[in-house]
């Protein structure tokens, strides 16, 4: 199913380039997604991280958690994270995603977007531990949110896709090198969404 959506300027997003993004809606059924989002809300140790911006300590606009094989420490935004050990639900999701991507992921970053005011700002997942052109598998449960991608050097080149409940988005190629992505805030009253990005940390 190809998704056409409207980008900020009212332009239709062009078809996602398959060499960068492979979008699979309904990768998990509605029943599985409902069960998994409740389990993740309850069993994950959600943290409120902070970031230093212009000399002020601000709360990250979402809750996060880092899980994975032990010994896979991950550093980003000037902090380093030791993962919590895999839970039953995370392993269930990981096994499905591993099979679809043909990769054995060793860690996952979880984001809980509580409402439309939660977001993730423009960034690329280009930390050195991920290596050049990493494959990152992004699973979404709950509220549909807009995922936007733009080229770093030519910001007019952009794409967007609405990440639906139970969907899988495989990010690959040079997406983390030449492009950046965000999940913008929305002024609409939005419900909760959990996103999981499975990664291989060296
Ligand atoms: O929530 C999303 O869809 C994207 C999250 C993301 O980009 C990240 O955790 O690096
Ligand atoms: Fe990201």
UniProtKB/TrEMBL annotation:
It comes from Mucilaginibacter pedocola. The keyword Oxidoreductase applies. Pfam families: 2OG-FeII_Oxy_2 (PF13532). SUPFAM superfamilies: Clavaminate synthase-like. GO terms for biological process: DNA alkylation repair. Its cofactor is Fe(2+). Residues 104-202 form the Fe2OG dioxygenase domain. GO terms for molecular function: catalytic activity, acting on DNA; demethylase activity; dioxygenase activity; hydrolase activity; metal ion binding; oxidoreductase activity, acting on paired donors, with incorporation or reduction of molecular oxygen. PROSITE patterns: FE2OG_OXY. Keywords: Dioxygenase, DNA damage, DNA repair, Iron, Magnesium, Metal-binding, Oxidoreductase. The keyword Oxidoreductase applies. It comes from the Bacteria. This is 2OG-Fe(II) oxygenase. Signal peptide: none annotated.
